[in-house]
Write a structure and sequence with these properties.
Length: 283
Amino acid sequence: MGNTWDFKAVGQDIANILHQPEYDDGSAGPVLVRLAWHSAGTYDAETDTGGSNGAGMRYEAEGVDPANAGLQHARVFLEPVKAKHPWITYADLWTLAGVVAIQEMGGPKIPWTGGRTDYVDDSKLPPRGRLPDGAKGADHLRWIFNRMGLNDQEIVALSGAHNLGRCHSDRSGFEGAWVNNPTRFSNQYFRLLLSLQWKKKTLKNGVEQFFNYDEDSETELMMLPTDIALTQDRSFRKYVELYANDKDKFFEDFAAAFSKLVELGITRDASKKILNTDNEKGG
Ligand code: CCH
């Protein structure tokens, strides 16, 4: 292990594994974004526990949490990258993978800095139940994200990640994609939230979600109850409207909020000199 970390080379190798013709919509990108988010989204500001440091999903308590079902695919996609760059910590690899995937799928450049450690501090382990439940509403979203120190505007901006990927009935119980092109990062999710009439339906497994047909396609699209809650709460809706109408503002706010998310609760290994990436703050 040298004392210089070349994150740029890792980023390039992450970009190279995104194309996965046998998987979902042909891309590992969306599930990598979810891995980054779930690794960080356990943070609790009050007790300074959880967050991406420690990469706790490698272990059973967090790894087999039902909220993380399916994320083993993301971790497996990244193993060849870890094998090629064994010096990188999983905590850095997973968060960097989310950032690279978003950019490669047409999203904004997200400031990211390495140096997370894989040291697992048992006193910092997050209990289960810290990630959001898609069956709930606006109060639940605030309860979850305020705990991380994130506000209404950041909640709505981050929710724009549902431009990407899909729900899998064998993972979350929900089924389907939010937009027609789920491997292209855009503000389409916000536009569809406002422009389509979303109707509730109960899936065969008893799970309730919202659906509609995009007129331009024959695909059925979906929204979670938490997605619909963003249009029903006055404060959230203001930002849904802003981002539906202004893609650049969405990209800017999303990049800032995602960057903040993957920094939550981080303590860095200061012993290593970090070779800046393209994403390095201020660099
Ligand atoms: Fe999400 N998300 N997410 N989400 N999410 C799901 C899938 C993705 C919620 C619930 C779900 C964020 C916020 C929320 C992604 C990124 C983000 C699924 C389907 C559920 C359920 C899982 C499955 O079945 O595979 C809820 C509730 C919230 C509340 O805020 C945030 C924040 C982000 C990132 C910034 C991405 C990407 C996916 C697609 C994953 C895939 O495998 O395609």
